[in-house]
Amino acid sequence: MNFGKVAFGTLLLVAGVLLLAIRLGLVPPDTPGFLLRFWPVLLIAFGLAFLAGALKNPFLGCLASILIVGGVAVGVFWMIQRHEGAKVSRGVASIDLGRAKVGSLTVRVRTFAGGFDLIGAPAKSRTLYVAVRNSAGDSASGYRFFASGKTGALEWPQRLDGLGLAPPGGGVDVQVPLHLELGDSGRPDQIHIGGALSTAHIRIAQDVPVQLLVRSPLTARTLPSDFVKETQGRGKGLVYAARGRGRVVKIFADGNLLHVKIERIPGKEILNGRR
C-alpha cells in the first residue's frame, strides 16, 4: 500500500471538510491561519507515511493519518474555545486622508477563505479605518497605504517582493469616509477584489453609478435589479453596469469561487456594508 498517497488523500479530505465547515459557520474563519503556524506537523506525518511504505509497516501509516486528523481536530477545538472566550486578535488602524491630501482612493483586497466588508464612515469623517480579522497575527495580515499625488491606494495584504499572500481565513473591514476634501463625494474610484473561497459584501447608494467587471466564470454574483449586463470582448470577462450621477465606482472581481454581493441603499449615504 502507498501510505504517502493515503496521507495526502487524508490531508485533502480534512482540508475540504474544514473549508466547508467554515462556509457553514460551524468553525471560525481564521482557523486555517492558526493551523498553518504548525505546518511542521505535516512534515512529520508525511515522513511517517513514507517510512511506513519503505518498512511495510501499517502502524506507521495509520499513525500518519491519525496525526493529520487529530492535529486539525485539536486546532479547531482550540480556536472555537478562543472565540467563545473573546480572545481573538483584531488589528485596527486609522489613516488620516486629510493629512495625506488625497482626493480619490483605490482599494485592493485579496482573501483566501475569508471576507471583505466595505462600510461607510460618518459624513464629516476624514479618516480611513482598516480592521484586520486574523487571530494568527502574522506579518502577512498587514496593510499598505500609499499616495501618489492626489490619489491614494489601500492594499491588503501588503505585497512583499511582489507577492501578496492572504492569510487563510483572514478578513478585512474597510471604513471609507463619505466625503473627502477633494473629489466626487469621497467615493473610491476602484475596488479590486481577489482571492478564493471568499465573500465580498458592498452596499452602495442608489444614485451612484457602478461598473462591475468579473474575470472568472467561477465568481458568483448577487446584484440589484438596476444592473445590466454589457457586451464585452472575448477573454475580458463579464461587465455589469448601473447608471447614476457623478463618478463611476469600478469594481474588479478577479479570483475563483468568490461571491460578490452588491446592494443598493436609499438616501444620500455613499457606502455602507456588512458581512
TrEMBL record:
Show the stretches that span the lipid bilayer: 6-27, 34-52, 58-80
Which superkingdom heads the taxonomic lineage of this protein's source?
Answer: Bacteria
- Tell me the Pfam families matching this sequence: LiaI-LiaF-like_TM1
The answer to whether the entry has keyword Repeat is no
Q: Tell whether Glycoprotein is among the UniProt keywords.
A: no
The record's listing under InterPro entries reads: LiaI-LiaF-like_TM1 (IPR043726)
> Which terms are listed as keywords in the entry?
Membrane, Transmembrane, Transmembrane helix
Ranges for domain LiaI-LiaF-like transmembrane region: 7-51
Query: Know the name of this protein?
Result: LiaI-LiaF-like transmembrane region domain-containing protein
Organism source for this protein?
Eiseniibacteriota bacterium
